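Hello Y.,

Per our agreement to keep a running log of every chain we model this quarter, I'm adding this entry. I've kept the format consistent with earlier entries: sequence first, then predicted structure.
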Amino acid sequence: MEKMSRVTTALGGSTLTGRTMHCHLDAPANAISVCRDAAQVVVAGRSIFKIYAIEEEQFVEKLNLRVGRKPSLNLSCADVVWHQMDENLLATAATNGVVVTWNLGRPSRNKQDQLFTEHKRTVNKVCFHPTEAHVLLSGSQDGFMKCFDLRRKDSVSTFSGQSESVRDVQFSIRDYFTFASTFENGNVQLWDIRRPDRCERMFTAHNGPVFCCDWHPEDRGWLATGGRDKMVKVWDMTTHRAKEVHCVQTIASVARVKWRPECRHHLATCSMMVDHNIYVWDVRRPFVPAAMFEEHRDVTTGIAWRHPHDSSFLLSGSKDSTLCQHLFRDASQPVERANPEGLCYGLFGDLAFAAKESLVATESGRKPYTGDRRHPIFFKRKLDPAEPFSGLASSALSVFEMEPGSSSMSWFVDTAERYALAGRPLAELCDHNAKVARELGRNQVAQTWTMLRIIYCSPGLVSTTNLNHSVGKGSSCGLPLMNSFNLKDMAPGLGSETRLDRSKGDARSDTVLLDSSATLITNEDNEETEGSDVPADYLLGDVEGEDDELYLLDPEHAHSEEPEYVLPQEAFPLRHEIVDTPPGPEHLQDKADSPHVSGSEADTASLVPVDSSFSLISVSHALYDSRLPPDFFSALVCDMLRFYAEQGDVQMAVSVLIVLGERVRKDIDEQTQEHWYTSYIDLLQRFCLWNVSNQVVKLSTSRAISCLNQASTTLHVNCSHCKRPMSSRGWVCDRCHHCASMCAVCHHVVKGLFVWCQGCSHGGHLQHIMKWLEGSSHCPAGCGHLCEYS
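Predicted structure for the entry above:
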């Protein structure tokens, strides 16, 4: 590592001199501790237990405490602590549950002094009393804490935290007999070493395990805790109840926390996993670290300030098998790389923009924001010149207001209250919601509901008379005719194959495949064409005459005396081979210009057989299917829902989801639906639309949403006579044996809906109270209170 700046600090009679440096260890470190004179550091781990001298330019190994021929689990350390009153006394917490003390003053190579084997599982933490030389405290994975007197062979007292494991224990600097302990269940307990039977105070500090704690060296009532919830919290323990005074949000689980000496609001943290850096936070500025050390390449396992009265040097050990000394002057400053601008939308559509004053140009037309037309959307605290961040916080805040009325959300409230989401057929729901949107001026939404009705609802059948009339008139809304075939112009090969073979087709219906893309037409009962909801008209027959005399008969203009044309069974073969049709003869062009042919018939062709007689088929049938299946539009509808959600109209997305149900829900992933539902429900509750919100929750099929209205629905009932909680689920109090909920009108027990007056607390059956208050405003119990039911 390259040489960096050097700092010399005078501390009484000693002087600290050093720079940022590191040394390589033989194995990963689990914990470190510094001796009283800040000249040596001990490093402990599963495979390492050494003491290093901290010199000006480097670390120098002084002593290896892992001696002996056979490896022992007593040397596998989870924690180590150096006594701050006796420089020869160390204690380690072994992974096999043994607490070991070490005496560096012993003349032999083996410095091991005492072994305490009372814990059954791994010991996570050991701690010496700050002023008592012979008192040692340990916390184990077995959930017990033990206090040892080093002058005895056994523990003095045992403390049970009633939890799975103890993660940290720390003696208080303020109170001689008090120590704090943290647990896996998120609790922090305060104990008096004189009373091992119960803790003095217990509170829940974190949402998850609490891994570490540290008492403040100056404000001795402050206790800092760090947990798996990625938070560092500072608690004031001087009050009757533990009060959270600061909270720092980190990016990973907090494994170690240490207050910085001589800096009242600074503390250092390291992570248990993911993040390898060490951060120094100012608790008054909890979102941006004051300093950051980035030397380690693996998780930092132990941190310690070199001297209790020097804030410049920080020591750390890591799983990357390195021991580092960090100089605070060389730390990176994240605040220097932070974005100095901020942008945020307000609830009413206002836009707030904060930036440095030097970046904001002075405008003569700008006026101060008064917030007269509604409640203020932000609050600005006056800066204290004595604060360390007062110079950095000199920024200008600009608020861009929406025009009055332009950001009104009345349409949202009206739409939510008037929309119909269930209880009617799909067509009626779509029509009703389209009408509501149209009345509110939301034409695009109204058109969307109309299109959904067309896609998912069956259209009505068109009458045959109207259909033929529209076709004969050549109307654009009518259905075009399919091509007519004249067998005269068929290819010779095809014509020879079209002779009817009666011996082969008696059992099959007479069918004609008109085109490779056309619909198959049946001739059994002269009914509708297959695959269509629209009736088809057929004109089938054998006639003799010229080609120009053939045209479609219009039912409205047909003469009654004309005979009905009937298709002989031998007119067409049962099935013929599909071949490429040769180009039409010239006389078809002449037919198109004939005055006897309508515009729709100009596109027809004739196929005449070889003999003089010929057959004609003219079918009034759509060239396309008039109604595609709804599944064909599923992708389009899903894109439409995502479009509305991305535009911010989550109300439309959720409403369509509920109305269409399984028709579209299966095509949208569950996580997206849940996100839309939660967003819409949150908006409804912001506008106090509780009934609509509950309806949306009930109609939702997502498990995460449908259970929302079942949370926090417990009703705690107290007896109206003895005022004590009802312990049973019945209507009779177990203590005073009185009925808890008596109707003030009928004097019977209320076993259903119960309504009561918030003024006098009397009530009864809902229907009875409503009927009573229709004729009288006085309480039916006779207390004289004027009750009101709304």
